[in-house]
Amino acid sequence: MPPKLDDNVEKRIQDALEFHAQNPDESIATVTRIFKIHGPTLRSRIRRQSQAPAQISKAKHGGHNKVLSDAQNESIRRYIRRSYEAGYGATKAMVFEAIGELKRAEIPLKLAPSKSWFSNWIKTQTHYFHAIKTRPIDRVRVLAHNLDDVRSWFQEYKDYCD
């Protein structure tokens, strides 16, 4: 989930989107400088806006063999939003497990959906939320966080200063 933006930043983003729609010849870099917003934020908003109508139109066909009802979909979206607002976010594994719990709580008992169904479902939900990929911390940096090493470094520093 993207960081929660204050109203002022959100208004500037909306103004930038409107400006870019009215002036498509202007580069995104120029628009971000005018409205003082982060470039990747504007790019991703423009990309999501262009994807949303295509994804919504896909949902119009079929729908007789849905795994989740509209209410269950909404509850999963709320779960993801609340997890994000609580500060820890929701991993794909957490969301998959939450969907499984919803299905197991149904009467009559329903099995959890498959991983392939979940992958496809996540792809159709990009206009509601998106995944943030993190890179693992370098091994040298992880080892630098050893508490004993930090204590010894400060002890050596204290001895040096004395």
Describe the structure using short key phrases.
162 residues; mainly alpha; Arc Repressor Mutant, subunit A; 8 helices; 0% strand; flat
What does this structure look like?
With 162 residues, the protein is mainly alpha-helical. It has a domain at 1-61: Orthogonal Bundle (Arc Repressor Mutant, subunit A). The chain is 65% helix and 0% strand. The protein has helices at residues 7-22, 28-35, 39-58, 70-86, 92-104, 115-124, 139-144, 147-161. Helix 1 (7-22) runs antiparallel to helix 2 and helix 4 packs across helix 5 (92-104). It is flat, with a radius of gyration of 23 Å. The relative contact order is 0.09.
What oligomeric state do these chains adopt? single chain
- Runs in which pLDDT lies below 50 for 5 or more consecutive residues are none
Number of helices: 8
| Estimated structural class | mainly alpha
Tell me which CATH architecture of the domain at 1-61 applies here: Orthogonal Bundle
Helix-strand string: HHHHHHHH
- Report how far the terminal alpha carbons are from each other: 49 Å
Radius of gyration: 23 Å
Tell me the total number of β-strands.
0
Shape: flat
Roughly what is the average pLDDT, rounded to an integer?
Answer: 83
Can you summarize the main beta sheet? none
How large a portion of the residues is in β-strands, by DSSP E? Answer: under 5%
Report the helical percentage.
55-70%
Classify the fold: give the CATH topology of the domain at 1-61: Arc Repressor Mutant, subunit A
Q: Which class of the domain at 1-61 in CATH terms? A: Mainly Alpha
